[in-house]
Amino acid sequence: MDTIMVLKFGGSSVANNEKLQLVAKRITKIYDKGDKVVVVLSAQGKTTDKLIKEAKELSSNIPNRELDALLSCGEQMSTAKLSILLNYMGYPAISLTGWQAGIFTTNNNQNANIIRIDTSRILKELNEGKIVIVTGFQGIDENLDITTLGRGGSDTTAVAIAAALHAKNCYIFSDVDGVYTADPNKVENTKKLENLSYEEMMQLSSEGAKVLHNRCVEIGEKFKIPIITKSTFNDKPGTVISDKIEENTIKSIIKKEVSRVSVIGNGIIRNFDLIEKIIDFIKKKELELLNFEISETKISIVFKNIIDDEKINELHELIF
Predict the structure, then answer these.
(1) Do 137 and 21 fall into the same domain?
(2) For residue 32, is it within any domain?
(3) What's the Cα-to-Cα distance from 104 to each of 98, 113, 227, rounded to whole Å?
(4) Would residue 202 count as lying in a domain?
(5) Looking at residues 145-153, what average pLDDT do you find?
(6) Do both 24 and 170 map to the same domain?
(7) What is the CATH number of the domain that holds 46?
(8) Total number of domains constituting the chain
(9) Which of 8, 76, 295, 300 could be joined to 158 by an S-S link, Cβ 3.0–4.6 Å?
């Protein structure tokens, strides 16, 4: 049986044509060994942020459906460019959008979940000897509308495709070469971890480690797909995330940036309309909570991530 390898490259790995050349060399090196290769790409560099900024310049009330249609363009650009390059290099390649690759999702825009993947088109192209390049971060819902998967969406796409294809491994390439005992940009003398269990990686991700999103690790654990994190820019060994529990030992320290927001006023504990408004706002914005406490004079909310000024302004407008 032919071995299928799934390789995912993040935005920093495909940021420009020079880096696309490095990515192409990594792909062809694996393809030349006789493996079938599926590649999942993010949008180039800050393309998604640029598209959001430009959309907000047009309207302060962007329809969610249209925003997803716009945001999906970034990944389509990077996959088409890589396919053009690989074909020029003499390697048969084809780019597929999320819907062409058979990725079906829920209909909650900007944060959709993958329901199933119809792998027939991917397998057809693989069996014809092609390198298949799939857009990360996107799919289609029951109405055939484009959806995007939210934070970590390309990682999720890659591991989900690996699971659907029963791939041997799923490689996640980025500008870091693995998972460390702490953030190497902030802490001296950190050590790279050779192995992590799925559970350990999910704990690290939920506490702010940015190597992998916990959604993709959950899929890896469910379908027993080893996830290997490596650098696009060097050949150092990466970190393998699998169901192997190597030993009972401390693996990493994470410093997580969070936001604490407080709403203050006498008798606030009995202001049920206000409490309901705040809870509805948190749900609508799909903000993740660490803690929510109410006292006589204060509502104290601790979010899992930094809350930007725009959302604070929206909350202020809602309350006052």
Answers:
(1) yes
(2) yes
(3) 8, 9, 22
(4) no
(5) 92
(6) yes
(7) 3.40.1160.10
(8) 2
(9) 8
User: Is residue 136 one of the residues assigned to a domain?
Assistant: yes
**Nearest to 299, CA basis, from 270, 258, 257, 269:** 269
Residue 114: predicted pLDDT: 96
Q: How confident is the model at residue 21 (pLDDT cuts 50, 70, 90)?
A: very high
Give one DSSP letter per residue of the chain, joined into a string: ---EEEEEE-GGGGSSHHHHHHHHHHHHHHHTTT-EEEEEE--STTHHHHHHHHHHHH-SS--HHHHHHHHHHHHHHHHHHHHHHHHHTT--EEEE-TTTTTEEE-S-TTS--EEEE-THHHHHHHHTTPEEEEESSEEE-TTS-EEE--TTHHHHHHHHHHHHTT-SEEEEEESS-S-BSS-TTTSTT--B-SEEEHHHHHHHHHTT--SS-HHHHHHHHHHT--EEEEESS-----EEEES----SS---------EEEEEE-TTGGG-HHHHHHHHHHHHHTTPPEEEEEE-SSEEEEEESSPPPHHHHHHHHHHH-
Supply the pTM of this predicted model.
Answer: 0.78
Q: Which domain holds residue 310?
A: 259-319
pLDDT per position as a tens digit, 273-285: 889 999 999 998 8
Over residues 59-116, the pLDDT tens digits come to 999 999 999 999 999 999 999 999 999 999 999 999 999 999 999 999 999 999 999 9
CA distance 113 to 95: 22
The more confident residue out of 285 and 266 is 285
Domain limit, last residue, from 125, 151, 175: 175
The Cα–Cα gap between 214 and 155 comes to 9
Dihedral (C-alpha) 69, 112, 114, 24: value to the nearest 10 degrees? 50
